[in-house]
């Protein structure tokens, strides 16, 4: 039988290309239906691509680091009659010819061995001088970020599995290359191509700076009562995080100042106010800054927001957040305090029209009733698109959120 060619599937969300980050199989490997064969990075997320059929890999189309177009050949598979083929025939109807993370129902993001398929049918064992299977996406990403060739490593884990410690031990400073920067005359240490997520972030931020006439306003807020309220809630059980509590105030503020939860349609010459809030939460990851969004955040309580914030930030850092989660925000909340800074004038996440940032909460001298006392202070800063509102609206929203932080029990009674 002639090899079957599996083409890079539709990525969804209007995406037409992806960077081939790493092959998860080699020519000659046996693969099962829905087994991941490659790790790719789109402008939205890092995902694993599952094969829609089983057999033996005849050819890999493309080199690691190459940009592939949707519909271009990815792998060729010999459809030999084997344990894999038998299993594939049984599972054909459940095969997901889409990316993991984009809604395939018959696939799992874990690369587990399926029941009834021999281990050799899922992944051929490492032979002398060849790379053992690397199961963890974290290990693969760590190796890529540190310039470590996994094929050159000998794993110390079970059955020769390459562990994070193996990669860290092999990591070494990047060697200085011979080419020189023309302007400075300094040697160029390394070159980092703008691909995938980094390319998308660059385009978004550049467009934001180019198109949006932005302005920034900020306020120092006494968050002592907020910390005390959270401590009280913690005594009676699990308490939502500070970010979730502020997120609830932000959502309430957007209901009162809908101009900040809108879009500017330059083509139609109008401002579109949105009905409901998809709250973006900025998350710093090893691949750059991403903003997964809490869908219908206006329908959630503080505890509900807290659960979604934890889930989405973990998914963003693991590279498993879906394209819909990363591209559907209507307003962004950025906790740059986790970076150890007090304030920032952030860049609006285009095509949104505003972003609220919060710095770290620190004990500071504060005047209360004419006396100087120690209070826990946080700076909130709002960057907004001056096309959608003026300083009065922006200041009103910021003051509303600040008042909620300073008197959270009263604010929660009114929400």
From TrEMBL:
A Pfam family hit: Biotin_lipoyl
Domain Lipoyl-binding: 3-78
Segments for region (Disordered): 98-133
Domain Peripheral subunit-binding (PSBD): 134-171
Class in the EC hierarchy, top level: transferase
Record-stated family: Belongs to the 2-oxoacid dehydrogenase family.
GO molecular-function terms, A-Z: acetyltransferase activity; lipoic acid binding
Coiled coil (UniProt feature): none
UniProt cross-references to InterPro entries, sorted A to Z: 2-oxoacid_DH_actylTfrase, 2-oxoacid_DH_E2_comp, Biotin_lipoyl, CAT-like_dom_sf, E3-bd_dom_sf, PSBD, Single_hybrid_motif
Name assigned to this protein: Dihydrolipoamide acetyltransferase component of pyruvate dehydrogenase complex
Cofactor(s) the protein requires to work: (R)-lipoate
EC number per UniProt: 2.3.1.-
Keywords noted in UniProt: Acyltransferase, Lipoyl, Pyruvate, Transferase
GO cellular component, one term: cytoplasm
